[in-house]
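Exercise 7. Given the encoded structure of a 313-residue chain, write a plausible sequence.
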């Protein structure tokens, strides 16, 4: 991949896709192909065929996906399975048909079994049952990994899969029911501060542990892996640092300036109790995350209060 390569970023308006575009533009890449969901429905095979026939991309970052937090995953189950299976099948198959030089597919740490040993190593995939709240999304992402793996094995395609930790950053979604925990905490703490409320509802027990990765770190890792990694096995991208949801809530409250308390609604699910990834494979290639969680949250909150890079309230 070089400055003049034709690079298609599928999902360019999303948090991950827009971060990859920022990173590519910063490197001087000038031929980036973007297609909004209003012009191309990636679930539609004919529209994806037309897109590839027209633009002939040489490299593809497959960041398009239906995503959401625990409640969205748990309730929009058919949509998470169908949309993601269709999007990734169409894009990966057209990348094969059009002789794309390399494709990078983005998955998620929820592909690993619910009770897998920690930290999660790449080889733990498909060794036991999944977490029920996000089984449809995880199954779709596992199918995406297997598509990349098997197009490589059968046709020699240079398709790789990257599994990030829980992401946050610019262009996140702040929907109170459907978003992930970190943007939701920012919104809840900010609104409680403004309205002078002294208590905030959170979900589950507060005890699950999560590993958070800033999306700009992920974008750097994706560019690095596009250049450096060509292997049949997927690869983890994380920081290796865990935090409980209760600790995260307090961290966000301190940054936002919310001084009230939190209570936990146990009618809402905890999901996986722990999912910290072993990213030693990536680190051994020479890549490390650069953005600390507190620095990243401060940066995102600054943008949130300015109304920048914020979606779907
Ligand atoms: O970020 P989150 O929705 O996704 O939730 P997952 C993380 C943890 O935060 C869970 C708790 O234990 C939630 O119960 N939590 C507490 C809250 N309060 C809230 C709240 O107000 N909103 C939200 N959203 N959570 C998703 C998967 O899992 O992570 C996806 O469903 C994907 O498939 C994604 O893998 C990265 O980390 O539980």
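Solution.
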């Amino acid at each position: 991949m070089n400055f003049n390569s034709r690079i298609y970023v599928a999902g360019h308006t999303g948090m991950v896709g827009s971060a990859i575009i920022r990173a590519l533009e910063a490197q001087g890449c000038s031929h980036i192909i973007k297609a909004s969901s209003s012009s191309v429905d990636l679930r539609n095979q004919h529209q994806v065929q037309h897109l590839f026939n027209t633009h002939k991309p040489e490299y593809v970052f497959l960041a398009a996906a239906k995503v959401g937090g625990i409640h969205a995953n748990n309730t929009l189950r058919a949509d998470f399975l169908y949309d993601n299976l269709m999007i990734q099948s169409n894009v990966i198959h057209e990348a094969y048909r059009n002789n794309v030089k390399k494709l990078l597919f983005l998955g998620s740490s929820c592909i690993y079994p619910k009770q897998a040993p920690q930290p999660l190593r790449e080889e733990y995939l498909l060794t036991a049952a999944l977490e029920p709240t996000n089984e449809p999304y995880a199954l779709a992402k596992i199918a995406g990994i297997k598509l990349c793996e098997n197009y490589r094995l059968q046709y020699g395609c240079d398709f790789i899969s990257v599994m990030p930790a829980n992401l946050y950053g610019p262009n996140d979604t702040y929907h109170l029911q459907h978003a992930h925990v970190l943007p939701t905490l920012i919104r809840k703490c900010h609104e409680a501060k403004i309205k002078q409320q002294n208590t905030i509802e959170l979900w589950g027990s507060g005890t699950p542990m999560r590993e958070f990765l800033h999306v700009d770190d992920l974008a750097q890792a994706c560019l690095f892996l596009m250049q450096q990694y060509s292997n049949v096995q997927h690869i983890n991208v994380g920081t290796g640092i865990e935090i409980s949801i209760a600790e995260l809530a307090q961290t966000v409250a301190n940054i936002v300036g919310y001084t009230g308390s939190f209570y936990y609604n146990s009618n809402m699910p905890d999901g996986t109790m722990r999912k910290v990834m072993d990213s030693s494979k990536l680190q051994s290639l020479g890549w490390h995350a650069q953005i600390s969680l507190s620095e990243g949250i401060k940066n995102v909150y600054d943008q949130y209060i300015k109304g920048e890079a914020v979606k779907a309230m």
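Remark. DSSP finds ten helices and 14 strands in the chain. Students should compare their own answers with the one above.
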